[in-house]
Design brief:
With 182 residues, the protein is of the alpha/beta class. It is built from 6 helices and 6 strands; from the N terminus they run βααβββββαααα.
Length: 182
């Protein structure tokens, strides 16, 4: 049983090229180099074909290229923080965070075997595995922060709630009596 991602599949401040094709090729090479894909060209071709159907950029500077491929030996997630950012077709601009999801062509029948400790029911309740909900490890260098901590810092801040009046507003009949309303 393996995990979807490990340290060998994470690149920080990586220059993987200036277009989607070069980024996808470099991440396909990384996945093959770690032994999770039988060959680069098949994975690259499948991921590029998927990217050409619909752009995988999402708001917030994130891209999620993905594919099913005969070349993939085990479900894999590769992550890169890009420098420079690359346009993956999101409406708000280029992406500097890329998650490349590579899945085998055969359907995955037991998703919990892909990621131990992240049971299927919890997928409905959270978008992060339990280990990511804990306090991330702090390092001395801002360039070696954990990917989850880095993503947490990119999350948009919620809009503050509108102020609640201290007293309930006056009843419309009170406005008429004061002459403020016609």
């Amino acid at each position: 049983m393996t995990t979807l991602i490990n340290d060998d599949l994470v690149l920080l401040d990586a220059n993987l090229g200036t277009d989607t094709t070069s980024v996808i090729r470099n991440l396909a090479e990384l996945i093959a180099k770690t032994g999770r894909a039988a060959e680069v060209e098949g994975l690259f071709a499948d991921a590029l074909a998927r990217e050409q159907k619909t752009a995988t950029g999402v708001p917030g500077g994130i891209a999620i290229p993905h594919c099913r491929s005969e070349s993939v030996l085990e479900p894999t997630l590769a992550m890169a923080r890009l420098n420079p950012a690359v346009d993956f077709g999101a409406k708000d601009g280029p992406a500097d965070i890329v998650f490349f999801i590579a899945a085998p062509q055969a359907p995955i029948t037991n998703i919990s075997s892909c990621s131990p400790g992240w049971p299927v029911p919890s997928l409905r309740r959270t978008s992060r595995p339990p280990c990511a909900q804990q306090q991330p490890r702090v390092t001395s260098s801002p360039w070696s922060r954990e990917p989850w901590q880095m993503l947490q810092s990119r999350r948009p801040k919620p809009n503050p709630a509108p102020p609640v009046p201290a007293y309930p507003p006056p009843h419309p009949s009170q406005h008429a009596a004061s002459g403020l309303l016609p």
